[in-house]
Amino acid sequence: MPASIAHKVEATIRRHGMIKTGDRVIAAVSGGADSVVLLHALHGLSGKLGMKLEVAHLDHGLRGEEGREDAVFVAEYAAALGLPCVAERADVAAYCRKTGCSIEQGARKARYGFLRRVLLEKDADSVATGHTADDQAETVLMRLLRGSGSSGLSAIRPVRDGWIIRPMLDVTSDEIADYARNHGLSFRVDHTNADQDILRNRIRHHLVPMLRREYNPRIVQGLGRLADTIRCEAEYLDARASAFLADHAHATDGNILCMDLRAWPDAAPAVQRVLIRHLVRSVGGSEERLNFDRVEKTRTWIGRGAVGRIHELPGGIRMECRRSELVACLGSFVPFRRDFEVPGRVEVPASNLSIRIEEGSATDAPAATPKRAVFDAEAVPRQWTVRSREPGDRMSPYGLAGHKSLKKLFNEWDVPRLLRNRIPVVTGGDRVLWVAGHRQSNEGMVTGNTRRVMVAELMANNPD
């Protein structure tokens, strides 16, 4: 193996801590030149690095007989190296028709899903893919053309999700071609890589050669350095954003996050942009449709949004500015209703909460709190309902005379508009007994004559 390739692959592995002595590594091999060289190089380094190497191959089912021949080629090459090989075939086209995603997205999802399964089944430590410096350069250009921010321009990360590693990210396609030729390595050719309808292929075959020829002969290396620099800066901003949320935000029930707005102006604009992406991720949303304009519009809105105004982002993300708090959640409201007999326990739909009702002696009754209601067991019915609020709901709040609508009470309690429909309302018959997490009603009050009580508690479900 030429020293330059050996040193580059080994240096990349050691610099990013990709492989430790004793690790089991799965090489993802398609049969193309990049993955064949990856496998050959890793096999040559396996003794020096003290790793155990295996092979995985997925036929996406998109190239008919050629795909099947690729699988045979990879299996035979792995066998020649004395390595175990796992091969599967997927029907990516059918998956894309069913889900409506693009072939590129479907193939990627199938590939990484397969590799993740192999990783777990083999109890391996990592999966190595054959991404190269040219792949990195193409990705940077593609995302630059689409207007990506720093996270996107970080492009292909050397280590992703803690288990995907890219040992050849500093190796160019020219070096790979020389390596394969010098070692007499055979490989398969995927003719779809010449399809000019695919943006990456146009960048590979037209834009990069033009930039190399007319502007910078080392454009691939330059774009790789740019990606590495931006990645380091993006990681720093990510850390700042994470620290900000740890200090100034907290999760409530389910996919809901509350952030202290008083600290927002202290964050630099660059951190604010990353924070918006963190907020979206924190409530279970996707960043795929968060382009620069949407992020910038949201950033401006958070700083100036009117109290009570709702702001929506793609993917069902909704935000509400309060006087000193931002509330963010995922998904629109779906009415819920659960009937049950007391004592008993019922889960609150679309949340990680349950309401538990127990019967006991009045002498041992605990004090009522917003998350605990206490009733005279003989003064309330045995059939209860937990539901979302409904038009016309009214209650007589504990300790107050008269009745008020829940809408008016929510205003008085300063409950965010986004959360009002998610709050569990507990009823017995046609009477509102308790707005869980806020206040119980005067219905079924405990008196000096009460002998038995019903104690209702709002509690988080166990994580498992």
Keywords:
464 residues, alpha+beta, Rossmann fold, Phenylalanyl-tRNA Synthetase, Chain B, domain 3, six-stranded mixed β-sheet, five-stranded antiparallel β-sheet
Q: Can you give a write-up of this model?
A:
- With 464 residues, this protein is an alpha+beta fold.
- It folds into 3 domains: 3-230, Rossmann fold; 252-330, 2-Layer Sandwich (Uridine Diphospho-n-acetylenolpyruvylglucosamine Reductase, domain 3), CATH 3.30.465; 337-460, Phenylalanyl-tRNA Synthetase, Chain B, domain 3.
- It has helices at residues 3-15, 33-49, 64-80, 92-99, 103-121, 133-145, 150-153, 173-182, 199-214, 219-248, 269-282, 292-304, 406-412, 417-420, and strands at 24-28, 52-59, 85-89, 126-128, 159-160, 164-165, 249-251, 256-260, 310-313, 317-321, 325-330, 337-341, 344-347, 353-361, 372-376, 383-387, 394-395, 404-405, 425-428, 431-435, 439-440, 452-460.
- The strands form 5 sheets. Strands 3-2-1-4-6-5 form a 6-stranded mixed sheet, with helices on both faces. It has a 5-stranded antiparallel sheet with strand order 7-8-11-10-9.
- Strand 9 and strand 10 (317-321) form a beta hairpin.
- Helix 2 crosses helix 8, helix 6 (133-145) crosses helix 9 and helix 10 packs across helix 11 (269-282).
- The longest helix has 30 residues, at 219-248.
- The radius of gyration is 30 Å and the shape is elongated.
- The two termini are 50 Å apart.
- The relative contact order is 0.08.
- The model has no long low-confidence stretch (mean pLDDT 90).
